[in-house]
Amino acid sequence: MAASRPNRLFRNLSAKIAAIPMILTALVVFVGGTVWTVAYSFTSSKMLPKWKFVGLDQYERLWETRRWMVSIENLMIYGICMLIFSFVIGFILAALMDQKIRFESTFRTIILYPYALSFIVTGLVWQWVLNPEFGVQHILRSLGWESFNFDPLYNADIAIFGVLIAGLWQGTGLIMVLMLAGLRGIDQEIWKATRVDGIPAWKTYIFIVIPMMRPVFITTLVLVAAAIVKVYDLIVAQTGGGPGIATEMPAKYVYDYMFGGQNLGQGFAASTMMLLAVLIVVVPWAYMEFGSKKRG
């Protein structure tokens, strides 16, 4: 037993040596950068990092700032709606694609195409589409619907939903592809058995297929949730955080304070809170994925 351990240690030695630079990079850049950011969030750093410990002052100031509270509220609205609608629409599209329809590859490419665009392009495109002067509102009014109003980006109460439309347009295609891959992994014998038993298709999806796709749903949830927390370029391109601060997001708050407001301490505190939000999603996922396998 003891003799087998050194042999196991030196197995695939060249691959382990080749991985050392990447491991060191991850430790220094990611782990080291994270620790450095969290540590300096307890300082009064302004334009340059300065180790002047002020305790939780930056966090108290952060949660007393209206702009930060608006950004958290927007993140919650955008995040919850994005998760619900993108999962529902993505799964429905995947279920339709799984019916072996004609020109499936063409439709799949069309639906997935927006994901290939950057969020900057998506934001600019939907800024034009939702512009009342020459967008959807202008087109429908020119067709005779003079009373039609659709200018969400210019109404502070619903501006975040205009951003949500753009986010769904870009991200739903990826979710559809992930769900379609999960559906294609379902044994066809299950479908044959449900047809023989006369089980309706919607019951098959809800009570059999969806529970079997649990790993796909969890992985997709982590990917989408992480993207939601760090959404920045879509906001900058589409609304710039406006009107006023109606579409402010935490990532934009961090960038503005660190580079525009020259208040590194406040930016570090905000980015630490974003890190906590990501950990709230990733840690339960890691526990469910790896902890359950270990117990099994």
UniProtKB/TrEMBL annotation:
Compartments reported by the entry: Cell membrane
InterPro entries for the chain: ABC_transporter_permease (IPR051393), MetI-like (IPR000515), MetI-like_sf (IPR035906)
Keyword list, A-Z: Cell membrane, Membrane, Transmembrane, Transmembrane helix, Transport
Annotated signal peptide: none
The UniProt record lists the keyword Nuclease: no
Domain of life assignment: Bacteria
PROSITE patterns: ABC_TM1 (PS50928)
Gene3D superfamilies: MetI-like
Keyword Cell membrane recorded: yes
GO BP field: transmembrane transport
Occurrences of domain ABC transmembrane type-1 (ranges): 72-287
GO cellular component: plasma membrane
Transmembrane regions listed in the UniProt entry: 20-42, 75-97, 109-129, 158-183, 204-229, 268-287
Topology with respect to the bilayer: Multi-pass membrane protein
Family per similarity comment: Belongs to the binding-protein-dependent transport system permease family.
Classification via PANTHER family: ABC TRANSPORTER PERMEASE PROTEIN
Protein name in UniProt: Lactose transport system permease protein LacF
Phylogenetic lineage: Bacteria, Pseudomonadati, Pseudomonadota, Alphaproteobacteria, Rhodobacterales
